[in-house]
Amino acid sequence: MAAAASSTDRPGALEITRKLAEIxxxxxxxxxxxxxxxxxxxxxxxxxxxGPHAAAEVLRLAAAHDLTVxxxxxxxxxxxxxxxxxxDIMLDTGRLAGVWHEPQGSSVAEIGAxxxxxxxxxxxxxxxxxxxxxxxxxxxxxxxxxxxxxxGPLRHRHGSPCAQLVGVRxxxxxxELVSVGEPGTAHFxxxxxSARRGGGPAAGPHGGVAPGGAxxxxxxxxxxxxxxxxxxxxxxxxxxxxxxxxxRVQAVPAGRVWVSRPVWTPLEVHDLVRAVLAARLDPAxxxxxxxxxxxxxxxxxxxxxxxxxxxxxxxxxxxxxxxPAAAGSLVVLLEGGPADVAERADRLAALLGPExxxxxxxxxxWGRYPFAxxxxxxxxxxxxxxxxxxxxxxxxxxxxxxxxxGSAGIGAVHAALPGSxxxxxxxxxxxxxxxxxxxxxxxxxxxxxxxxxxRAVDLxxxxxxxxxxxxxxxxxxxxxxxxxGRLPGGL
Length: 491
Description:
Helix content: 25-40%
Distance between the termini: 15 Å
Largest sheet: 8 strands, antiparallel
Radius of gyration: 25 Å
Number of strands: 25
Structural class: alpha+beta
Shape: globular
């Protein structure tokens, strides 16, 4: 790989730089610097093409010189997934930006992959609309959100961002611009790669199927053409380079209320979530925050001390024994018309009990990850009836409470292990948790981790769809030029 140059001081490297400058413009092609990393792997060049055709030329140049290409949006999740085997050209999508929506009232909008999600929402808000997408990464681009299949609290009601896809334009490994999507959508009428190459169906990271032409047949069932677009979701740029996506949009809700309740144990969370879902209140999100508890002071404070005497929750006032500080919070978001939301909020507060509180603003932790840079970040997905078992298993394996946050209403949460834990300790924790989840049809994935941990542990765990994912990679990127090694199994 990279036969043209093994370092940036060779004549071949200078020639590649010159050609990238011709394609992208001199200010938008350069040798990479120390900050141009992908999960610790430094790139050789950075190219920022000004449009789809320029991006296609970059990929054709890479193919001609046997160079690898890794797409980058805002870089908010550049350390997620596996470390690529090699990064020759980092293709920055920052100039593939814009929001091209249909006449006012349309239910879809075409958005450039390099457009920051905040800019998308601000543009749509001017016409009273929004994307039902609230990925937690600050500054993330739409392409980056889709490439990581990153979802926030609204996934409870609307599914992941990939569920909002109507169509996409993307570049394949050979630099061909491919458009897929529902019939009649602007720009989405070309055939998928398998139609041109005569390849068979292939499955992506989440079990989707790459079709031939407008549709394909897998096991006798017709698969719609849009599934090839959804192959790219979660693929970290390993199956194609997103150029734009046509997404469903909706009216901005007139009313929003967050109803919160303190919680003490994961089992209590389980019971509360079941009650909320059974009440048919149509929540937009059901989020859990279980931070690491603050240690209690060693010195017992007398009940008569001025700092506690007379408090509304003091046993002398309530007539009940003192309750320990809450371990965390369960918060339910309700959206809709103001009157309807107010009525549902009253019903929900009555269901959750006297400790429930309704607010017109989200809590500070809402839509944020529980991990920080340098932590080992985990994602746990499990049926909601078993979420409490997964949290208990994680605590038992770690030997201490672990911060957990996420969508309790669908059993998808994130957790954080300290970055100071030795790799072998992280590996033992993962083995214990995955053993519990395996019997419950759940998964625990390492989202990101310090380099020593990343090298020592299995990031993905058991993945039944790996053979089909391998088929997809072989079909869409047979020469492994796109982000090699970013996908499970070193693909």
